[in-house]
Amino acid sequence: MTQQNQTLVKLENAGVLVNEKWLVRGVSLEIKKGKIITLIGPNGSGKSTTAKITLGLYKNIEGRVEKFTNKIAYVPQKINIDWTLPIRVNDFMNLTSNLKKEEIETALETTGTPHLKNKDLKSLSGGEFQRVLMARAIAKKPELLVLDEPVQGVDFNGEIALYELIKKISDTLNCGILLISHNLHVVMSKTDHVVCLNGHVCCSGTPIDVANNEKYQELFGKDISKILSVYEHSHDHIHKIDGTIEKKEN
Amino acid sequence: MLDDFFVRALLVGIGMALVTGPLGCFVVWRRLSFFGDTLAHSALLGVTLSYTTEINMALSVFVISSIVALILLKLQKKTNLPADALLGLLAHSSLAIGLVVIGLLATIRFDLMGLLFGDILAVNVNDIAVVWIGGAIILMVLKIIWKPLFASTVNYELAEAEGMKPEKYNAIFTILLAAIIAISIKMVGLLLITGMLIIPAAMARNLSDNPNQMVIFSIIGGLLSVFIGLFASLEINTPSGPSIITSGLILFILSLTKIKKKSQLNN
User: Fold this and answer.
1) Smallest Cα–Cα separation from A118: which of A130, A143, A101, A137?
2) Is residue A84 part of a domain?
3) In this structure, are residues B12 and B120 in contact, taking their beta carbons and an 8 Å threshold?
4) Is B31 an interface residue toward A (CB < 8 Å)?
5) Fold of the domain spanning B5-191
6) Other C-beta atoms within 10 Å of A6: how many?
7) Which of B31, B163, B214 is nearest residue A72 as measured by Cβ atoms?
8) Residue B66: partners with Cβ closer than 8 Å, 6 or more residues away
9) Every domain of chain B and the residues it spans
10) Tell me: the pLDDT tens digits for A76-107?
11) 141-180 in B: which are within 8 Å (CB) of A?
């Protein structure tokens, strides 16, 4: 399907220099409709920066960013609501859009938070707030969804459910998703394309390609790489993965 | 009816409160109270300009305040100084320049007290027109930019990522602030205008749990301050501008008891 392959954003050799330090450099990636791209990498490797470049939040960048959509929703890594501002979940849901009452309620239900609708935003726990942020992004029905660690602070069951939800959104809305995550083993199986960052693109490809990549294994250490591999193992491509694990342990 | 100085004062006060209510909420939300002060201080320069060139006072104050606001936005990007230091720098230097210029114009008689504290009882029909027409324009613009401005107030990056152009709307808001200062400087004076913006909004914050409610309470608070202040001024002969602000303070203190009850219920 041609529509499936429609490019939403394209980064070519993108980089940001702040205070004479490159936050990230030489990133090329392409987000297409209906696809999930996951950014992984250690702290300070430029994951959030790459997401912000994609969103156009940096004024002076190296390289090129081409955006082919304006229907964008963003779930930032952290967001501070000033206590001087009285704002309920309901008001927050409509922050950048004009949603109907039902649309807000449906979105809150999909993230399991309909009971929070009239709560003060500041009274929410970290996990609840994260779910509301997700609900707000989904309610916008975006073409491009940028999620910067969307499950932080969410309890374990909720985490799995949210990842299921992300996959579902990508299918039902047919939107492109840029996902940043630390939880390698849960995320990667649902991803179409993985980009491993460490100030630059360390390696990229399908989840299995990346998992098997030596640079990736070096970056995260053998143990973590193994967890990921085992996870893939229990689900598909048994032979292929088995071979790799043996190869790695040698 | 407009012949009566008290009716004129009331009309001007009501017009002002309708505008300072919503604008004041944004000033509080965005932590811009010192910024408002800076613009108000720079207004003195605008006033002297209007005396020397004989342009309309509101217009010259608006122009000077807008220039100062834009200089500030530029300086914030160019220097490493914190915002409050830059605000102090601009506030006091523009106030000082204004006073120096007044000194140079020794031939013109200035009512400095009137400039600092305003004189709402001395307004003429012309002033009423300035406040109501200017105020209507400010409110109209604010209504148009409400959504993107509010989004960027809640979170700048989120607003920018989702195409709300926060930089543009922040600049427009700054101009609106300069405009309200320009049209109300004659009524409450440059030392008290920020109080008119902040005190009703602060009172409203104590009573509200959502943004729209806070705006409405802020307008009501401003209107009540004007009524009480002006009647006090008439009955017990206190200065009008300071009486309005003092009334606002009393309302704020009353609102504190309300907030207390709320938290007791929650506990």
Assistant:
1) A101
2) no
3) yes
4) yes
5) ABC transporter involved in vitamin B12 uptake, BtuC (1.10.3470)
6) 15
7) B163
8) B174, B175, B178
9) 5-191
10) 988 888 888 999 999 999 999 999 999 999 99
11) 147, 150-151, 153-155, 157-164
The distance of Cα B156 from the centroid of its chain, to the nearest Å, equals 23
Could you identify the residue written with the tokens 């002060």? B37
How many CA atoms, within 13 angstroms, populate the side-chain half-sphere of residue B190?
Answer: 30
Q: In what order do the strands lie in the sheet with A72-75?
A: A72-75, A144-148, A176-180, A36-40, A193-197, A201-205
Rounded Cα gap, residues A42 and A166, in angstroms: 22
Q: Is the sign of the CA dihedral B56, B61, B66, B71 positive or negative?
A: positive
Q: What is the ipTM of this complex?
A: 0.83
Tell me the HSE value of B133 on the side-chain side, using a 13 A CA sphere.
Answer: 8
A164 part of a folded domain: yes
pLDDT over 70 (residue A222): no
CATH classification at residue A16: 3.40.50.300
CA-to-CA distance for A171 and A36, rounded, in angstroms? 10
Asked whether the beta carbons of A132 and A154 are under 8 A apart, the reply is no
Please indicate, yes or no, if residue A50 is contained in any of the structural domains: yes
Between CA A193 and CA A210 the distance in angstroms is: 9
Residues B98-127: b if buried by 16+ CB within 10 A, e if exposed: beebbeeeeeeeeeeeebebbbbbebeeeb
Compute the distance between CA of residue B186 and CA of residue B116 in angstroms, rounded to an integer: 9
Q: What does the block give as tokens for A12?
A: 């070519």
d(CA A181, CA B243): 57
**pLDDT at position B3 over 70:** no
* Shortest alpha-carbon distance between residue B184 and chain A (Å): 25
Q: Both tokens of residue A150?
A: 């969307």
Alpha helices in chain B (DSSP H): 5-29, 33-53, 57-78, 83-104, 112-117, 125-154, 156-161, 166-188, 193-207, 211-236, 240-266
Q: What is the 3-state secondary structure (H, E, C) of B43-94?
A: HHHHHHHHHHHCCCHHHHHHHHHHHHHHHHHHHHHHCCCCHHHHHHHHHHHH
Q: How many CB atoms lie within 10 A of CB A58?
A: 18
A60: containing domain:
3-71+142-249
Tell me if A67 is assigned to some domain: yes
The pLDDT tens digits of the residues spanning B94-122 come to 889 988 888 887 666 667 777 788 888 88
CA-based nearest residue in chain B for residue A85 = B29
| Distance from C-alpha of A128 to C-alpha of A112, rounded to nearest angstrom | 9
Given A72, A76, A84, which is nearest B157 (Cβ)? A76
What's the domain count of chain A? 1
